[in-house]
Amino acid sequence: MTASYEGVGKLGFGAMRLPLTDPDDVTAIDIEQVKAMVDEFIARGGTYVDTAFVYHNGCSEPALRQALVERYPREAFTLATKCLAWACASKEEAQACLPTSLERLGVDYIDFYLLHNVGGARTAKFDEYDMWNYVADAKERGLVRHIGFSIHDGADVLDELLTAHPNMDFVQLQVNYLDWDDPVTESARCMEVAAKHGVPVIVMEPVRGGRLANLPERGAAVLAEADPEASQASWAYRFCLDLPGVLTVLAGASSLEQMQDNMRTFQTHQPLNEQERAAIDGAIAALRSVDLIPCTNCGYCVKDCPEGVKIPVALNLLNLERQTEDRAFAKGLYSWQAAEGPASKCVQCATCEAMCPQSIPIIDRLAEAVEHFEG
Ligand code: SF4
Ligand code: SF4
């Protein structure tokens, strides 16, 4: 791999949930506040700014043009954006994403271009639309500096994809302290796979969609006791910042105040010491002290399911709901992670229960998933 990563700041600015002037309209971006956030970010040494074709219904990229591109020299920042080919109706539509992103952002090249949310049945769309060759060609033509993909699937799928596409310069993974040894997300194993293939990692979801910045009391108390001054988000970012192989940790910010907190963490960052690691372990234990479904994601149950139900996904999200006490958050993830095999497709044949080494009453748990996530 010959890609150069010089100048990429360790804490990235994720422009997925920018501040709004109208909370009911995701396109009503508060551009003056975004400018102030960008100024704070750049002034404190940040460079990596991450957006996507679809963020804010297509308005995140133009907002960054106004707040960043038109106000700073091109070499002052590193831009990442993404294509969701699986959401496109045709190859032409998928391959039109890059020129549209370039135009919206007002730049003539993208530093990091991602095929976004590869995995599951979505991978077939990237294949069908020839997106792997398309991005390689875009890199050849100088429209893109580095090509990679983001993925939420586990380590085996990541390994297969990096083996099939050895020209990828980087990969974007879901990594955080709660998912580190999670049997479905497998953050730790995914990091090992990336290292094996020699690709650096952009960390997404370091605060697990905001859940690790707004912990249930039993987890919050552990961290507050260890350091009453530190924000919950800062613990989550610090966990990721020193992991080997990490290029950038994406930090979403929806206000200037959040950006200031993020940048404080970045500027004052010290590696976690032994006591601090113990505090995070204590918070994880507290979050998991609720009754969790003992699914190990071994996958035996899904092999012969006649309906293709995404059993481990449903069980994992029930566990996430129990740990974070946030059903709406888990439901949002379920809406796309289980879309190919929702729990409601279960016909109660019990084949899966006979296969489960953990003796989990899967049919009952799937009924719970239907009630919690499909209502
Ligand atoms: S009980 Fe439901 S989930 Fe289990 S194998 Fe049968 S259809 Fe699939
Ligand atoms: S067989 Fe049991 S433990 Fe294995 S993935 Fe299925 S539900 Fe989880």
From TrEMBL:
Gene3D superfamilies, alphabetized: Alpha-helical ferredoxin (1.10.1060.10), NADP-dependent oxidoreductase domain (3.20.20.100)
Highest rank taxon of the organism: Bacteria
Alphabetical list of Pfam families matching this protein: Aldo_ket_red, Fer4_9
InterPro entries: 4Fe4S_Fe-S-bd, 4Fe4S_Fe_S_CS, AKR2_Oxidoreductase, Helical_ferredxn, NAD(P)_OxRdtase_dom_sf, NADP_OxRdtase_dom
UniProt key word Metal-binding: yes
Sample GO molecular function, one term: iron-sulfur cluster binding
Keyword annotations from UniProtKB, A to Z: Iron, Iron-sulfur, Metal-binding
PROSITE patterns assigned to the protein according to its UniProt record, in alphabetical order: 4FE4S_FER_1 (PS00198), 4FE4S_FER_2 (PS51379)
Record carries keyword Iron: yes
Domain 4Fe-4S ferredoxin-type: 286-315, 336-366
PANTHER family: D-THREO-ALDOSE 1-DEHYDROGENASE, OXIDOREDUCTASE
Name under which the protein is recorded: Fe-S oxidoreductase
